[in-house]
Write a structure and sequence with these properties.
By secondary structure, the protein is mainly β. Helices cover 0% and strands 70% of the residues.
Length: 81
């Protein structure tokens, strides 16, 4: 079994506080490959953050990307997971 960790930039949808918009999400993707395979058997994301800024108010949000959903809070203009 081999593993790969890479930082990726993905398109996502940010929702919350009665608002919605598209966004860019930077995340670390951890992939697991069976021996000698070029196709990942599984993968997971961690360290997800919204890359672009907006005028949304501080509050609770959800970002959806690549079939995954992550809960975030916006405080002082920064999205935190």
């Amino acid at each position: 079994m081999s593993f790969c960790k890479e930082t990726v930039l993905l398109n996502g949808i940010l929702r919350g506080e009665g608002r919605q918009r598209t966004c860019r999400v930077r995340a670390t993707r951890n992939s697991e490959f069976p021996d000698e395979s070029v196709i990942a058997a599984s993968f997971a994301y961690c360290r997800c953050c919204v890359e672009d800024s907006d005028d949304f108010p501080d509050g609770d949000y959800e970002v959806e990307f690549d079939g995954h959903k992550v809960m975030l809070s916006k405080k002082n203009g920064q999205y935190l997971s």
